[in-house]
Amino acid sequence: MGAVRIIENESQFYHEMSTMGTKLVIVDFTATWCGPCQRIAPIFEQFSLKYPNAIFLKVDVDKCAEVAAIQGVSVMPTFIFYRNRTKLGFCQGADPAGLESKIQQYYGNGDTEDSEGSVTGHVRNNNNAYYRIFGIIFLTAILLYWNKYQQ
């Protein structure tokens, strides 16, 4: 498959996650203003071509703040690894060797062409009101705290 898919909004993120089946999904939580994020972006793109049976997504934390908050992203870049919508692990920072090591750790076991979409009908849907409300409350608390100490 290869190539990085750009996620523009929350619904696109959840849609992409719900259709991946057993494939490894690697999500780069990034920001346009983040220097390290920009430095590792071309390497992330190269990895998407090197590991074609994995899905590579890029999420701008400013465009998709709720998704980033729900996923526990507080440092950029953060790379989170999923399979069947289950978080396998993560790595933070612009470390190409560390990122590739994590990719290799999770790559395989379901990333062959034969298994593509084999359990798509069994993917659990976590896109429910609980997660949305939690994300909104979390972001509200952060904004209130930030506003209090900006004055």
The total of beta strands comes to 5
Morphology call: globular
Mean pLDDT, to the nearest integer, reads 83
Query: Structural class of the secondary structure composition?
Result: alpha/beta
Q: Gyration radius, to the nearest Å? A: 16 Å
Q: Strand-residue fraction? A: 15-25%
- Give the helix proportion (percent range): 40-55%
Count up the helices.
Answer: 5
The description of the largest β-sheet is: 5 strands, mixed
State the separation between the terminal residues, measured CA to CA: 49 Å
Question: H/E order of the elements?
Answer: EHEHEHEEHH
Enumerate the strands of the largest sheet in spatial order, edge to edge or round the barrel.
1-3-2-4-5
Detail the poorly predicted runs.
112-127
What does this structure look like?
- β4 (78-83) and β5 (86-92) form a beta hairpin.
- The protein is built from five helices and five strands; from the N terminus they run βαβαβαββαα.
- A five-stranded mixed sheet has the order 1-3-2-4-5, with helices on both faces.
- Residues 112-127 have low confidence and may be disordered.
- It has helices spanning 10-18, 35-50, 65-70, 96-106, 129-150; strands spanning 4-7, 25-30, 55-60, 78-83, 86-92.
- The chain is α/β, with parallel strands linked by helices and 151 residues long.
- The chain crosses the membrane at residues 129-146.
- Residues 1-124 form the Thioredoxin domain.
- Keywords: Disulfide bond, Membrane, Transmembrane, Transmembrane helix.
- This is Thioredoxin-like protein 1.
- Pfam families: Thioredoxin.
